[in-house]
User: What shape does this take?
Amino acid sequence: MRLGWIELRSFRNHEHTHIAAIPDGLTVVLGPNGEGKTNLLEGMYVLYALGSPRVSANAALVHEGHEAAYARGEFDTQSGRVLVEVEIPSKGASRVQVNGSAVRRKRDLRRQVRAVLFGPFDLPIVIGDPSKRRTFLDEALTALWPLKEGLLTAYDRTLRQRNRLLKEWDGSGPPHGIEAWDEELIAAGSALVRARHDVVERLGPPSSEEFRHLAGYELAVRYRPNVWDPGDLEGGFAARLGERRADELARRTSLVGPHRDDLTLDVRDLGARPAGSHGETWATALCLRTGLASAVADELGEPPVFLVDDPFSALDPARRDRFLERLSGREGQVVVTVADEADVPGHAAAVWDVRAGVVDPRTRA
Assistant: This one.
């Protein structure tokens, strides 16, 4: 899978950027901080994710003085070419077309194209609260198996309804209908737990391999579900709900289920979050995304477009060189941003200079 070309209009500080050809192999985006390197990768990622990992509101993506931003690009995949066009209004939902037809669900696009993005905004996966790691798990789930996005939707819907029932309970007797919502929570929650377990089984080994190459020692990636019984997950879920019933009624919220899962990340037999140095936490986040790109490639049979923003800022020179070696050896397209000319390898397929939102692509022979 490859991104053949991209066009951005009124997208952050990119008034009009059109890159007619994106080569295979390693492309380096070079320029001082604040000139638009990250914005370019963000625009590429929007063509896959239909949203930004940096902000939740569209307004931040639209260049000042404009009502909407636009991102267009064409992917070459095993099943053919896929033209993606995204209109991003400053207010309201984005409008998306794939091969000229409107798309309403993200998974309809993600079945056809795949991209993985790393950036400094990934650091909370390692040092943030458990919700950040759950979000990462679910991003990995939809990247590996887009059609399983429905598991997330089903569980979130059930959880909201059950919590509403608990909040509105009048305190007399058991909440009316709680048993039915227990059954729904168990069914939807068990399906999501199994899917997340499979994600870690696919994601953990390549992430650990990348970390071992980068740092010289192990990264252990382990799923820590709130409910887990390999012999009878649904039965264990039901038993746990029974145990916590009084607490749930007292707190008027659901306390059992995958909305309370976590992911354990250990380096040198210590937790990366409490014990890791800044370099180790950075390397952990970087290797999780790199491992995800490898897992997606194995699942899909072709590598996703891999976008890597500012990977070297917290790596010492030796680790920087080792990671760059790994990037250079990856199949498919890899686009990496750097601020220092010294970080540009001689074997890069292309170097793009970025200044004030203007891209000067200079493909090498």
